[in-house]
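User: I'm writing a tutorial on reading structure tokens. Could you give me a worked example: one chain, its sequence, then its tokens, then a sentence or two explaining what the tokens reveal?
Assistant: Sure. Here is the example chain.
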Amino acid sequence: MNNITLSDGEWKLMNALWDNSPCSLSFLVKHFEGDTDWSKTTIFIMLKRLMEKGAVSIDTSGKVQLYLPEIDREDATVKETKSFLSRIYGGSVGLMLSSLAGQRSLSEKDIEELRKVLDQVENNISKED
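And here are its predicted structure tokens:
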């Protein structure tokens, strides 16, 4: 993924591509209809920008041009998460969780999921020792 950064709209478009790839422009227009106010031109321009960034490619071998993601969702998510933590919380996961807990933004389900993740990490660390 290198240094590719995605805007909020580009994330939305990439998620559609990751979930439905390959996609035609008309599919994407219908996909976002009612969810956004994006026109066909807006989506085309965003796809063109994503192609220039190296995040999307186009298959022109058939009758319809198809767009495909060229970056992995997991890689993009990890990079964005690290960037967010660095910008907002100085890289501290603890500070972020403390902030969320202080705002009562964590549900019981969130807390249980965090416990499971922390247990897995702890188990993996114990196995390495």
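What the tokens reveal: The chain has two domains: 1-91, 93-129. The helical segments are 8-20, 25-32, 40-53, 73-89, 93-102, 108-128.
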